[in-house]
Design brief:
By secondary structure, the protein is of the alpha/beta class. It folds into three domains: 2-120, no CATH class; 138-272 and 377-543, Rossmann fold (3-Layer(aba) Sandwich), CATH 3.40.50.300; 276-370, no CATH class. The protein is 30% helix and 20% strand. The protein has 18 helices and 18 strands. The protein has a ten-stranded mixed beta sheet with strand order 12-11-13-10-14-15-9-16-17-18, sandwiched between helices. It has a six-stranded antiparallel beta barrel with strand order 1-2-5-4-3-6. A hairpin with a 7-residue loop joins strand 17 (516-520) and strand 18 (528-531). Helix 8 crosses helix 12, helix 10 packs antiparallel against helix 12 (350-365) and helix 13 (397-416) runs parallel beside helix 15. The chain is elongated, with a radius of gyration of 29 Å. The two termini are 56 Å apart.
Length: 553
């Protein structure tokens, strides 16, 4: 369908051009273009042959097609004498150039002014956006403006060409959690049978992700026309609108000493904890302390390092037997305790040992005994095809970081041994800026940098979300090959982290509605705005659907 022509009133280039939209009755277009529409133009140069350019509409303007001063316009409108000739122009950014003469190396040439511009829909959308170039590794990610499915290249997710996904957006309106779980549903249904991916989700806000194996009551109670619309979107994408299966839940213990029961509304959750061996083998001990205080206080840093050496050195077994939980470490740091004597003999001042003891007591008050126990309950994360949800939201921030660091360290060490490298592991976490902040040195930040920079080699993929990408460690956020932006504030969109968006798309990002995001990947010339359906699974406790004849737990 012809919708206009390439105007000669504006300069065109191989990368962007302007369409004068065709006029209909009374100069109003019969088919008005919309932002997000996909168009094509064909033309021919003698030396390069026939060329076809595809592009996405990124901006639309309207104006009178004659020059009028302000008072003239006011008078014309008030008297009903307004001109009947309007100008409607659409700015188009090129997504792909196709050449029959040179299919592998199409020429970068501008379209000829006056060339007719046609609307693209249906199967040709795949050609226009280069989806046909990775036919065997497509991941459905949402619905385009023209109603066709959009895809990402799995090669940029699973580590072949790149890895990691970052999702940012304003809290409460950007649908970060919903889209993160939607991508997980797409991955499960797309590669679940062949790759059997492992998903590890850290639940950091309320009980939001502790019920993804239940139906969403907002879906069940929605009007029939709305449910049909969502179901149609799922069918187009080839994704099942079903809660997740094969999910195992973990929660922190209710007890500071014994194994205890899970501190969670899910009584079928299992508790988790680590032992003394884990704390020192995984390098977790330093994470008990405030990283900024360690950086300022060299004596405290020395004391922490010395305890680590005691636990890891020639006589490490002896000290580990003395210290099976943080309460016993406190006792051993009393004047006359064996750890106290060992630190004193290594010239750590008594005042520093007392400070160290106070800081461990503070960590105990923050919930350390719920994580460090005499009899640990390890998280069984390494099960192909399983989703493991680890609830840490009831822990204080430093203890949350300790749990996250412990799990990621375990994953990376397991993969370094060479076990199950073929199975991708997705580590999914919200509030990434809290664990890998830009302007703070800490052990947990270094763990995330290691994951971002080396994880691809072991097929360990970070799916991180945050309100503001500019607040995440630069070395972490820039390693993401796939970038998703939900609704965002203007002040944040002005930061360098959003430089991959066109100026018009930044304006779009500031007004996105829930259920819409902008997605970018290296193969794309233009980031894509997509819509995604409501999750069919519960994304919070309040959204659980429980049939009348069933009990929740």
């Amino acid at each position: 369908m012809v919708v206009g022509f390439v105007t000669g009133g504006s300069e065109s280039s191989p990368y962007e051009f302007t369409v004068r939209i065709a006029s209909g009755v009374n100069s109003i277009p019969d088919r008005m273009l919309k932002i997000g529409d996909i168009v094509k133009v064909e033309f021919e140069y003698g030396n390069v042959g026939r060329v076809r350019i595809y592009g996405v509409v990124t901006e639309i303007t309207s104006s009178w097609d004659i020059e009028m001063r302000g008072f003239e316009e006011s008078l014309a409108v008030e008297k009903g004498l307004k001109p009947k000739v309007w100008s409607f122009l659409a700015s188009v950014t090129t997504t792909r150039i196709v050449s029959e003469a040179e299919p592998s190396n199409p020429p970068d040439v501008p379209p000829i002014p006056g060339s007719p511009v046609e609307l693209v829909d249906g199967e040709e959308t795949s050609v226009a956006l280069s989806f046909d170039t990775f036919e065997d590794r497509k991941l459905p990610i949402g619905i385009l403006e023209n109603g066709e499915p959009a895809y990402l290249d799995l090669g940029y997710i699973l580590g072949d060409n790149g890895a990691h996904i970052n999702i940012s957006g304003q809290s409460g309106v950007a649908s970060k959690t919903s889209y993160m779980t939607f991508l997980m549903r797409s991955l499960v249904d797309t590669i679940g049978k062949s790759e059997k991916p492992i998903f590890i989700i850290f639940n950091v806000k309320g009980d939001d992700l502790m019920f993804i194996d239940h139906h969403n009551r907002e879906w069940i109670g929605a009007p029939e026309w709305k449910k049909r619309e969502w179901e149609k979107m799922y069918r187009k994408l080839g994704i099942r609108p079903e809660p997740f299966e094969n999910v195992k839940f973990y929660a922190v213990s209710t007890s500071d000493v014994m194994r205890g029961s899970p501190d969670s509304p899910r009584k079928d959750a299992e508790v988790f904890s680590w032992g003394t061996d884990d704390f020192f083998d995984l390098g977790l001990f330093e994470m008990i302390f405030d990283p900024q205080e360690l950086e300022r206080n060299n004596n405290l840093m020395l004391a922490v390092a010395n305890i680590t050496e005691l636990m890891e050195g020639e006589h490490g077994g002896k000290y580990r037997r003395l210290v099976s939980n943080p309460f016993e470490l406190m006792r051993e740091l009393d004047d006359g305790g064996e750890v106290f004597n060992a630190l004193s003999s290594s010239e750590v001042p008594k005042s520093t040992i007392k400070l160290l003891r106070r800081r461990i007591k503070l960590a105990i008050n923050m919930g350390l005994p719920k994580i460090w126990k005499r009899e640990p309950s390890r998280i069984e994360w390494n099960v192909p095809g399983r989703i493991t949800v680890i609830d840490i939201h009831k822990l204080r921030t430093r203890m949350q970081a300790l749990v996250v660091g412990a799990v990621i360290r375990e994953i990376m060490r397991e993969r370094e041994k060479g076990y199950s490298k073929s199975t991708p592991v997705f580590v999914m976490i919200d509030e990434l800026n809290k664990y890998a902040p830009r302007r703070e040195k800490s052990e947990i930040a270094s763990i995330f940098r290691d994951l971002a920079e080396r994880g691809r080699s072991f097929r360990v993929i970070l799916v991180g979300a945050e309100q503001t990408a500019s607040e995440v460690d630069y070395r972490v956020v820039t390693q993401a090959a796939t970038v998703v932006v939900g609704r965002q504030k203007w002040v944040e969109l002005s930061k360098d982290e959003y430089g991959h968006l066109l100026p018009e798309q930044k304006r779009k990002a500031a007004t996105l509605m829930q259920g819409s995001v902008i997605v970018d990947q290296p193969f794309m010339r233009v980031p894509l705005v997509v819509r995604f359906p409501m999750p069919a699974w519960a994304t919070s406790y309040s959204k659980i659907h429980v049939p009348q004849d069933e009990e929740l737990f």
